Amino acid sequence: MKIALVISCKMRFGGAERRLVRVLNEAGKRHEVFFLVRGCSRAFLDESLSLANCDVSHISRIIAVEDGSRIRGSLKALRRLRGLDVDVVHVYGASRFNAALTAWAHAVGKRVLFSMVDCVTFYDSMGFIEEKTSASLLSGRLLDFILRRVDVLDVLCPEQLSFYSQKVRRGCLVGSTPGTFTDLEAYRPQPKERLFVFIAARLNKQKNPQLMVDAVKMCQDALRASGYKVLICGCGWEEERIRGQIEDLRLDDIVTMPGYVSPREVLPKAEVLCALQKGTNYPSQTIAEAVASGCFVIATDVGETRRMLDPSFSSLVDPFAAELSRAMESYILLAEDQKHRCFADARGYAERHFSIAPSREYFLGLYESCQPGAR
Predict the structure, then answer these.
(1) How many Cβ atoms are within 10 Å of 46's Cβ, its own excluded?
(2) CB 155 within 8 A of CB 116
(3) What pLDDT is attached to residue 294?
(4) Residues sharing a CB contact under 8 Å with residue 308, sequence separation 6 or more, in sequence order
(5) 127 φψ region: left (φ > 0), alpha (ψ -120 to 50), beta (else)
(6) Which pLDDT does position 136 carry in this prediction?
(7) CA 182: distance to chain centroid?
(8) Backbone phi, then psi, for 92, in 5-degree steps?
(9) What is the block-wise mean pLDDT of the chain (375 residues), using blocks of 10 residues?
(10) Residue 359 near residue 23 (C-beta atoms within 8 A)
(11) Burial, 244: exposed, middle or buried (Cβ in 10 Å; 0-12, 13-18, 19+)?
C-alpha cells in the first residue's frame, strides 16, 4: 500500500505537523510512505524536521515543492503526487489546494484521509468566536467542500466527533484520535532551570500569548524575588505586538522572546510549561513533550484539557490573568522537594500514557481501510 502525507510548510512545524509526521514514519514500517511538502525548499524542510525532532527514517521519499506562484506551485505538487501513484492521500487544513487535491483525487480514483486538527470551526459553531473575517468565512466554505468529498475523517478531539460526522458524505469512515503521544526518548528531564515557558510555533490569538504577558505583569515581583525567568517562544501573528508590550511594561529583564525554538531545546530544562489555549489544550504535543520532560504544567481549564493531565504535576486555571498569576505564584512557593516530586510524577505519567502505540494502530487502521475491497 502507498500512502502520501501532504502538508504546507511556509512556517516551522507546530504540534499537528510533529504528530502527523511521527505517525507517517510509524506507518512506514509496514507500508510505502511519502512525505510531500509544499511551499518551501528542501533545505528549509530538513531544518524544520530537525527542529521538530521528527524521525523520518521509515519514510520512503521526502519531496519539497517550492511554490514560485500559487497556481504553478499547486500544479507542480499535484503532478508530483500523481507520479507517486499512491492509494491514499492524507491532508489537513481548509485550503484552496486541499479542495483542489480532494476533487482531483476522486477524479483519478484515489482515497483521501482528512485530519480535522483545527478547533476554530467547531468553537465558531458554538458561538465562542465573535470576530468573523473574510478569510474565516472562506475557510469555512472550503472546509465544507472538502468534508463532503473525503473518504476517511480523523477528528482530533472526541467532543467534536458528532459535529463533524454530520458534515461528511454517507459512507465516510469517521474516527477520533486516541489521545496524544510523544517521543519518550527524545524528551527526558534534564537539570532544571528556574524557567516558566510558553511555547507555540505560531503566536496567534488562539494560543493566547497575551494571557501570559498579563499574568507576568501581575506576578513580576514574585518572579524577580525568586529568580525565575519567563520564555515566550514562537513567531508570527502576535509576535511583534507582544514584544512591544514586554518592552513598554519593562518586563524584559524577566521575559525573553527567542522566536521559534525546538521544544527539545527548551522543555527538558524548564520547570513549568504554561499551556493557555482559548478553546482546548487537548491533545497538545507541547504538553506531552513537557510532561515527558518532567515539567510542571499550568493549563487553562478549557475543552478537554483535563484528559491529558494529573493533579500530581499540574494546575488547571480559568483563562484569566489573575488566576494564572496566582497559579504561578503558588508554584514558586512550593518547597524544592515538592517540585522535584512533581517532576518525577510528570515523567512517570508520560511513560504510562504517552506512548505512540495506540495512535500508530489507529492511523494504520484508517490507512488500511482505504485499500480496495477493505470496506
Answers:
(1) 14
(2) yes
(3) 97
(4) 179, 180, 281, 282, 283, 284, 287, 288, 291, 353
(5) left
(6) 60
(7) 12
(8) -150, 160
(9) 91 85 95 94 92 91 83 86 94 91 91 84 54 62 91 88 89 90 90 96 89 97 97 90 94 94 93 93 91 97 91 97 98 97 97 92 93 65
(10) yes
(11) exposed
- DSSP state at residue 48: H
How far apart are alpha carbons 318 and 168 in whole angstroms? Answer: 34
Q: Go through 72-109 and write b for each residue having 16 or more CB atoms within 10 A of its CB, e for each that does not.
A: ebbeebbebbeebebbbbbbbbbbebbbbbbeebeeee
Cell readout for 174 is 469517521
Residue count of the chain: 375
What does the alpha-carbon distance between residue 154 and residue 176 come to, in Å, rounded to a whole number? 6
E strands in 149-247: 152-155, 173-176, 193-202, 229-235
Contacts with 61 (C-beta within 8 Å, 6 or more apart), sequence order: 34, 35, 84
In 122-244 the beta strands, taken as DSSP E runs, fall at 152-155, 173-176, 193-202, 229-235
The C-alpha cell at 330 is: 503558588
Pairing of strands 296-300, 314-317: parallel
Of the candidates 174, 94, 206, 97, the residue with the CA atom closest to the CA atom of residue 140:
94
Cα–Cα distance measured from residue 75 to residue 87, given in angstroms and rounded to the nearest whole number: 19
pLDDT in tens, 195-252: 999 999 888 888 999 999 999 999 999 999 999 999 999 988 889 999 999 999 999 9
> So what's the pLDDT on residue 122?
62
Which residue matches cell numbers 524548564?
A: 270
User: pLDDT, tens digit, for every residue of 127-158?
Assistant: 544 455 555 666 778 888 999 999 999 998 88
For 247, the grid coordinates are 518592552
DSSP H helix total and E strand total for the chain: 14, 13
